[in-house]
Design brief:
The chain is α/β, with parallel strands linked by helices. It is built from twelve helices and 14 strands. It binds 4'-deoxy-4'-aminopyridoxal-5'-phosphate. The site of 4'-deoxy-4'-aminopyridoxal-5'-phosphate (PMP) has 14 residues, from helix 4.
Length: about 400
């Protein structure tokens, strides 16, 4: 008799694998220039400096031990000092919680803040990792469009006026993944005021804020309200492998996250947290390192945007890429980017179709392009290939 297979939890039915992770399998072919991944450039990661910090940490036994659930205390001190500068107030170490990348912060916060069916407002297009977390929590998700100034906070005000009561509003305030835009200071203030007036949490998810190219990113939304939980990460400025993210959160949230972190993994890695503390405290070195990353990404971003505008003109509307890792582009003539993808792969270029980032539907004519891992000549070649794919598609239809 064949065994009866036990069921999985019902909530799994609602989950989808990330389209991007599935796509990355297809684009791994050597001849394809992939602008699909969302990876920082490993060549720019400070291997020698990390090795030195690892050697220093390993000189003692402490880095091999369990550490506190909210993070290794000296790392929290370093992060509190950095966040104090960012937020323009004294952030105490007790407000800083270290997580396994900021992705874990999202997942712990969803458990702490959301009951099944709770309303979560996200940006449209949305960060897929946030959608996955909020879906897993059984949230009701409403996606608000963005324009050049970021989330349409006026539409959030309309939702609230209509009686909707979000538990959480999630925003990627700087150099949005995938939308490429940065929320304007006026909208930041307006969002914070709404959060205070209506009593909802804002998760300000900010892994890209330090990767600005021409001018520093605006003051965080968290500057304006204590209802904002601010997330950041060392993944894009140092290396994702450290899995060091952090949040600045008020005491009630902190306590909830601490309880759930104990259940999730007891604590993070003392070794990588000591390495991160060493690098983040070395201000002169870090400033120079981040400058190098900014310079390289800025040059690549400009090369990509230039090639897109030269090749496609008005046919493709793209963001300016003032920072971060992505350009978001939209075909004005409605070209279906999901249908185009097989041709693009044949022509030797990969991207992520915009529809992958939709909370429900939409963005069929958009695409996300990541410029971090290709040099300017390769980016220009990628755009040529994309243009060839578009021509081939038009010739056929
Ligand atoms: N938030 C956003 C908006 C991201 O783009 C990413 C990484 N792709 C994360 C959070 C998670 O990053 P990490 O866990 O490496 O800190």
């Amino acid at each position: 008799m064949s065994p009866t297979i036990p069921p999985l939890a019902g909530k799994l039915g609602a989950l989808q694998s990330s389209v991007i992770r599935d796509l990355l399998k297809l684009t791994a072919r050597a001849e394809v220039i992939s602008l699909a991944g969302g990876l920082p450039d490993a060549e720019l990661m400070p291997r020698e400096r990390i090795a030195a910090a690892a050697a220093a940490a390993l000189a003692g036994p402490g880095c091999l031990q369990y550490t506190e659930s909210p993070g290794w205390a000296p790392l929290r001190d370093v992060l509190a000092a950095r966040e104090s500068v960012r937020l323009g107030r004294t952030v105490r170490a007790e407000e800083v919680f270290v997580t396994h990348g900021s992705q874990q912060a999202l997942s712990l916060l969803a458990e702490v803040l959301l009951d099944p069916g709770a309303l979560v407002v996200v940006e449209d297009p949305a960060y897929i990792g946030a959608l996955q977390v909020f879906r897993a929590a059984g949230a009701r998700i409403v996606a608000l469009p963005m324009d050049a100034e970021g989330m349409r906070v006026d539409l959030l005000a309309e939702l609230l006026a209509a009686g909707e009561r979000p538990a959480v509003v999630h925003t990627v305030s700087n150099f949005h993944n995938p939308g490429g835009v940065t929320m304007s200071p006026v909208r930041r203030r307006a969002l914070a005021e709404l959060a205070d007036a209506h009593g909802f949490w804002v998760i300000e998810d900010d892994p890209y804020g330090e990767l600005w190219f021409d001018r520093p990113s605006p003051d965080p939304v968290a500057t304006y309200s204590r209802n904002v939980i601010r997330l950041s990460s060392s993944s894009k400025i140092i290396a994702p492998t450290l899995r060091v993210g952090w949040m600045v959160a008020p005491p009630s949230v902190f306590r909830g996250v601490e309880l759930l972190k104990q259940g999730a993994d007891l604590c993070g890695s003392a070794l990588t947290q000591q390495i991160a503390a060493d690098l983040l405290a070395d201000e002169t070195w870090l400033a120079a390192h981040i400058d190098t990353v900014r310079d390289a990404y800025g040059t690549r971003a400009k090369a990509l945007v230039h090639a897109l505008r030269e090749r496609f003109g008005d046919r493709l509307v793209s963001t300016d890429a003032a920072g971060g890792m992505f350009v978001w582009a939209d075909f004005a003539d409605g070209t279906d980017t999901k249908a185009l993808l097989p041709r693009a792969l044949d022509a030797g270029v990969a991207y992520v179709p915009g529809s992958a980032f939709a909370a429900t539907t939409g963005h069929e004519s958009a695409l996300r392009l990541c410029f971090t891992t290709s040099d300017p000549a390769t980016l220009a070649a990628a755009v040529d290939r994309l243009a060839r794919a578009v021509e081939a598609q038009s010739a056929q239809s």
